[in-house]
Amino acid sequence: MKTVSPQYYNEFRCIADKCVHNCCIGWEIDIDEQTLSKYSLLGGKLASKLKDCICKNSGDAHFILDDDDRCPFLCEDGLCELIKEAGDDLLCDICNEHPRYHNYYSDRVESGIGLCCEEAARIIVCHSGKISLADNGASESCNEIERLFFERRQNIFDIIQDANSSIDEKLHILERRFSFKCPSLSMQECANILLHFEHLDTNWPKLLRALKSSHCDFAAQPLTSKWNNALSNLCHYFIFRHLPCDADESEFCAVICYAFFSLKVILALTMCNSDFSIDTLIEIARMYSAEVEYSDENYDSLIDLLKGCKYEQ
Ligand code: SF4
């Protein structure tokens, strides 16, 4: 089985105490069974704190967040008490893996780093030049359905990574190639859709409301071309992570639409911000990912909404 990942994958290192939007704040952290059994073998002060800070519910277990929504093992200095006391060995799977994600195929595991982590977002957005996929491990042959899927997906990567075309031109090429038409939504309509979703961060709806009432010229070409590389990296990320091999054509095309919908919203929210710097783009992309991509409910609603984009030839 080989592993395939974007070439930036191994650049990721958690920045821990330097992280502003620490993933140990505000997210429920589930604990896998193997780690739970490790905890049950411990003794001493750490064992009794673990016992007090874990909620078990019909087979599931998670850490009980404190009143400020922080993991009880997140120290004031931004470091993890479990790592400080016992090293990486006591980390549950989620803490060990985050923000990495994996997609499984018959001949490979494809892995990437998730945009909701600020360090991963920086690496993805700032990668210079085209992103290629690196593979490691023994090559086996995939099945025919997957082979065709990888071929089609590579075709999409080639189009979205063309440095000479704008986001709109790339989308039009893909629409023609795969016979779909993304709904032409104004930024006000996009903001409205997202305002109806569940929210994680109270600042997110404020940004969306500002977008809804903005008079910004979202078609401003000089700004978008300045960020062409960053935007094509984000587009590559959305496609690599979400394009499904086993879905029907309407879902396949909906995910391509989703990638472009996401780019346009991230770009518009960045342009609404007074400094529209690359740091703002990274922060908006991180927030968008946490709000839309990391909520199954929100993500599924958006895909359902975009499924009607496919038309018969
Ligand atoms: S969000 Fe990313 S960089 Fe920050 S603590 Fe979590 S894994 Fe580390």
Describe this structure in words.
There is one protein chain. The protein is an alpha+beta fold. The protein folds into two domains: 24-97, no CATH class; 144-309, no CATH class. It has 14 helices and six strands. It has helices at 33-40, 44-53, 81-86, 93-97, 118-126, 144-160, 167-178, 187-195, 203-212, 221-226, 228-242, 249-272, 278-293, 296-306, and strands spanning 2-6, 54-57, 60-63, 100-104, 108-113, 133-136. Strands 4-5-1-6 form a four-stranded mixed β-sheet. It has a two-stranded antiparallel sheet with strand order 2-3. α8 (187-195) packs antiparallel against α9 (203-212), α12 crosses α13 and α12 (249-272) packs across α14 (296-306). The longest helix is centred in the C-terminal third of the chain and has 24 residues, at 249-272. It is globular, with a radius of gyration of 21 Å. The two termini are 38 Å apart. The model has no long low-confidence stretch (mean pLDDT 92).
Give a brief outline of the structure.
Helices cover 50% and strands 9% of the residues. The chain is α+β, with helices and mostly antiparallel strands and 313 residues long. The strands form 2 sheets. A 4-stranded mixed sheet has the order 4-5-1-6.
Mind describing the biggest β-sheet?
4 strands, mixed
Total number of beta strands:
6
Question: Which molecules other than protein and nucleic acid are bound?
Answer: iron/sulfur cluster
Strand order of the largest sheet: 4-5-1-6
Strand content: 5-15%
Count of discrete alpha- or pi-helical segments spanning 4 or more residues: 14
From the alpha carbons, calculate the radius of gyration and give it in angstroms: 21 Å
Q: Please tell me the overall pLDDT.
A: 92
| Low-confidence runs of at least 5 consecutive residues | none
Instruction: Give the overall silhouette.
Output: globular
**Domains, number:** 2
Helix and strand composition category: alpha+beta
End-to-end Cα distance: 38 Å
